[in-house]
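Long-time lurker. I teach an intro course on protein structure, and each term I like to show students one example going from raw sequence to a predicted 3D structure in token notation. This year I'd like something fresh instead of my usual example. Would anyone be willing to generate the tokens for the chain below so I can use it in lecture? Attribution to the forum is fine with me.
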Amino acid sequence: MPAPTLPPEILNVIFIYVTPYKYNYFYTLDLLSCCLVCRSWYNSAVSHLQQNLQTVRWLRTNIYRDYELNRLADILTDSQRHGLALGAMTRWVEIMYGDVTCYHPVILDPTRANPISQIVRALQPNIQTLSLDFNHTVEYGRLRLLDKFLMPLLQNPQTITSLRVSKLSTKGGAQHQIFRVPTPKPRPTIPTLVHKLSNLVSPKLNPNDLFCAELSRPPHSLLLLIDRLHPQLQQLHLHNSRLTVDLSLALRRCTRIHTLRLHSVYASLPPDHFADTIARWSDLHTLSVHNLSGALTRPKPFLARTVRRLSYHPPRNLAVLDLEDYVCHDPDLDLPRLVTACASTLTALTIPKIERVPDNSDRLIAHLLTTPMPRLRTLDLSFVDCSCDLEKHHTRDNIAPLAWPELRELVLGECWGVRQTAVVAILEDCPQLECVRIERGDFKRYQRVVKLLREKGFVERKPLEGWVWKGKPWVKKGVAFEEEECKGREWDIDEGILVRM
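-- Reply from a regular --
Happy to contribute to a lecture. Here you go:
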């Protein structure tokens, strides 16, 4: 073995031959092992790892064989023990359900589960996000196995502050109860038959008899997990899942929640119950609700109760208010009151669909134009329907100067939500405005807005490929606008632990 005191130039040549192929996960194990020799080897090997960072940043455990998985677990454990930063380079760990089970689907494979648990423990506290893809699983055995697997995986739950849940038991239809775990119907036994016959003979049989005892079903593994994480849980992301009363009650214990995202969620709970849960989080920073659905018997404006409750008791630091659900609107109540109460802290605002009554949208837009929002950077009006005649509008003189000095992005959608005079006011009074997004809907409205944008020095730019937009971006000439939109996926999978059922 070369001496540890070799100069960096020699070590670099050695490490180049250690990893002859880029983006090779298995040669990365050799480099990680070299990091444990001494400090000079560590510095040189880490520089090579950083050149091919994605080989260690995204860790998929299913691609490693058993001995390689054990080797990686030992390396990361030794690194943590000696205070090295090897674990800090890994930001995302993907674990497949089938990779930790034996031939029987409800028995853990210790040769896989144990080293994976060791790896995750060695990466903490660098990993703070836990993502669970339930894949619509409702089988009792699989869910209990997940709970048994997560227990050793999260021996130090204080480091997990963000929980992301996807595909939580929506399989089987909207009426399927996700927290009532189905159990197989037992075959009749001799004691059961004797008990039934005794009921016919003696109807006054004690109902607490042993044969009458009804086994209580255990709670869903997600509820058990939230019970462990609730003291430090700060973020909850629920996607393509079902929100029930039991889950809502469990979340009420998470008093430190500041970010809540519900995307494509079926809510099977009363609107008042949902509003009570949201109102408990006084430190709410981000509230994002997209594509909310529910029972047919429930009132359509599900979020109206929540908006009203928050308008009377607004969160202290609400920065992102992103609502797409239908909300009943009164120009003197609810949504305008909430926006006014949080105007000093809002950085992103999406106005949801509101009740279609004459001049309702106009009054809401007029209220926004007169509300100072010093930190607002993104305003989305694509869901608002103004339903007005563009030929009948007020002059620019009737609109006072806007107090949105930081507005950077305006989303108009199909240009239905705001009059032309309001667009002129925003373009003239917001010096930081760099991007306006519009879609081709009504031809006359679209052409009028395009004409205004060109007069104000905006040019159309082709959106980046593979990204999701709310309309084509029109960018101000000479400004290098940096996109802030997120890609069309459930959530960012660039960090944390992802367990796929």
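Some talking points for your students: The longest helix spans residues 66-81. Confidence is low (pLDDT under 50) at residues 170-185, 200-216, 485-490.
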